Amino acid sequence: MRSRTLGTTGPTVSALGLGCMGMSALYGQADRTESIATIHAALEAGVTLLDTGDFYGMGHNELLIGEALREAGPGARDDAVISVKFGALRDAAGGWSGYDGRPAAVKNFLAYSLQRLGTDHVDVYRLSRLDPEVPIEETVGAIAEEVQAGRVRHIGLSEVGAETIRRAAATAPVCDLQIEYSLFSRGIEKEILPACRELGIGVTAYGVLSRGLLSGHWTRDRELGAGDFRGASPRFSGENLERNLDLVDALRKVAEQKGVTVAQAAIAWVLSRGEDVVPLVGARRRDRLAEALGALDVTLDPADLAAIEQAVPADAVAGERYPAALMAHMDSERG
Ligand SMILES: NC(=O)c1ccc[n+]([C@@H]2O[C@H](COP(=O)([O-])OP(=O)(O)OC[C@H]3O[C@@H](n4cnc5c(N)ncnc54)[C@H](OP(=O)(O)O)[C@@H]3O)[C@@H](O)[C@H]2O)c1
């Protein structure tokens, strides 16, 4: 397994990380046994970075990862780099009621996560969305106290813009920013990625397959179950979906010529962005994971990259990446 280091101060991790969200939430029903088998297959393949959020299934995802690591045997926890997002406020009906980045909340959220994961530390801890009521210095300062106490190893950020990144990095060492980055979502290239590079902060890219839309497996008539985020996502709706799947078909032609799948081409493109970018893939089945891992063997030369970017031009995607109500929480979208 190839490895990459998260920023100048962060841990060295597998060049591809496993995002576990869909095993507990947001993408409809998941199979628990297959989810755990997928985590085990990832660990066996040398994947070390496991990403979760305490609000993915209200703790379900952390319990699942904790169980998978225990079952994987002695040493599995220490070999893994667990990245946890916190701060999202939920309700029992699955609703979202904002974000809490107060220092007391940081300590409270972390205590529950450690218990659910069955560990004494989190490797990378990050606020999932900026809390507009709490200066980022206070939230990062509270995580830094947990670093001092040994309960957190590194501080990360999620979906924040350049100014917030600078303020956070001036408070304490930040190892990475987790943010959406794919052929369909290139918004970070203008200001956010350069700021990260200037400050020695790595990027863990999520949505590299645009939540399945860019995987080559999405079909126009796919039915979505209740609670599936994609049912409300502008990119999966109506004419936008038609236009976006046309782009996927164009990418499919390039991928076929290269002898790879669409998903592998999309992941390899993100891997080609730089050694400081680590893609997370949201595989929740072993066959999907195996396909994603195949991207690590794909080398894209300048002609391949040009063909891919011609098939999917930088601003060609139709629709915002989140519904309007959720876009309002994105500090990263405020420019
Ligand atoms: N910081 C943030 O704000 C934030 C937001 C969202 C996610 N994340 C993190 O990033 C991770 C990845 O995000 P994501 O799940 O949206 O990204 P993704 O990898 O773009 O999408 C995952 C979806 O793609 C489908 N897929 C098809 N072929 C695949 C393949 N070969 N490998 C993997 N997936 C394939 C899966 O479908 P099927 O399961 O239907 O087969 C799954 O529904 C999450 O698990 C989470 O940990 C972070």
Automatic annotation (TrEMBL):
Question: What are the record keywords, sorted?
Answer: Oxidoreductase
The cross-references to PROSITE patterns, in alphabetical order and at most eight, read: PROKAR_LIPOPROTEIN (PS51257)
Top-rank taxon, per record: Bacteria
The UniProt entry, under InterPro entries, shows: Aldo-Keto_reductase, NAD(P)_OxRdtase_dom_sf, NADP_OxRdtase_dom
Q: Name one GO cellular component term.
A: cytoplasm
Q: Which GO terms fall under molecular function for this chain's record?
A: oxidoreductase activity
Domain NADP-dependent oxidoreductase, chain residue ranges per copy: 16-311
What the entry lists under Pfam families is as follows: Aldo_ket_red (PF00248)
Return the protein name.
Answer: Aldo/keto reductase
Query: Native species of this protein?
Result: Planobispora siamensis
